[in-house]
Request: fold
Amino acid sequence: MLSYRHAFHAGNHADVLKHFVQIQLLDYLNQKDTAYTYIDTHSGAGVYALDGGYAAKNAEYETGIGPLWERTDLPPALADYVNLIRGLNPSGKMRYYPGSPYCADKRMREQDRLRLFELHPADSKILADNFRKVEAHAAAQGERPAARGRRVMIERGDGFLGIKKLLPPPSRRALVLIDPPYEDKQDYRKVRDTLEDALTRFPTGTYAVWYPVLQRMESRQFADKLKRLPAKEWLNVTLTVSTPGPDGFGLHSSGMFILNPPFTLEPILREVMPYLVRVLGKDSGATFVIEKGAQVTGTAASRTANGTARVPVGNARKASPTLGTGSLRLPGQAPAGTPGAAKTVPGTAKAGPGNARPGPRAPGGRPARPGGPRTPGSRRP
Ligand SMILES: C[S@@+](CC[C@H](N)C(=O)[O-])C[C@H]1O[C@@H](n2cnc3c(N)ncnc32)[C@H](O)[C@@H]1O
Reply:
């Protein structure tokens, strides 16, 4: 099923969370000189025009990157993300929004490798065209030699399959971003299976998965299934911008689930997530959750401090030692899934029903994105 076009959603609150986290993960890898590989299993078109075409239809960016654009009080890590987008818009007017491949390209060094998969024929062509321009521009600026083919490889194909041949990467350092449309509920299973396979090929890689937080069962159970994968550590962060309407339509919340996250990520999220809730939140349902956990059994942690082998106990996992529940919550947050979970961090969300823009029900009864009528081929579920 290839009806999804990311251009309809470019720059929305889900992109803000995803690309902000992606940049933090790349910056951590950049701390060492050794080359690394970035694998984007679902790349999209690379760059999106906001002032026309698909992105202008629902203008989802107006409630995503839009409110951050002119802010002068951004936390430093969030400013890094917004500045990357400002770099793509030198006139100061927000005309273009970068997709994950472009964010990666801007952050990565000459020695690093980008491996990009995109299945949609039109978007894979746009992606290739965009990268030709990006590479030519970088070469003209003397930033790096035109080395496409070695540094950047774009494949029109299935990223769930393509990743297999790339792991483990030559330098044993890699970030993998998995960001499917989830229009087809099989995507949830495919992500999990892909990660399970990837962890056997390359257990120490960092894997980042974007996912929608929806009422459908596959979505509700998704993060819990990922927590049971045999990675040494995981971190799960969700951003909710409004209370779901009674009809359950629209994308109000999304998450980034990271396997083997760098230790630097959690403190950055603690600083930035309350700010995002305050600036992007539409009503008192706006909130965020940060959870993390670690594996205590199996190969990843099968030895105690003195080196004696531990007896593996199935898939048992050790939750965050700070709270003993696996959930690292910030002051003012109630546990996810409890009635208090929708409570806002005090003083952070814009209250008032006037700010809520629940997505309208579209013909055919499937969920629409907030902010406008559904366009064929334009949505995630
Ligand atoms: C959510 S978009 C990706 C957005 C991009 N990661 C970003 O952040 O800018 C999902 C993309 O995956 C593509 N796609 C769907 N199934 C795929 C598959 N099996 N392999 C590769 N790409 C796929 C879609 O055409 C769509 O462009």
Residues 298-379 have pLDDT under 50 and may be disordered. Residues 6-350 form a domain with the Rossmann fold fold (CATH 3.40.50.150).
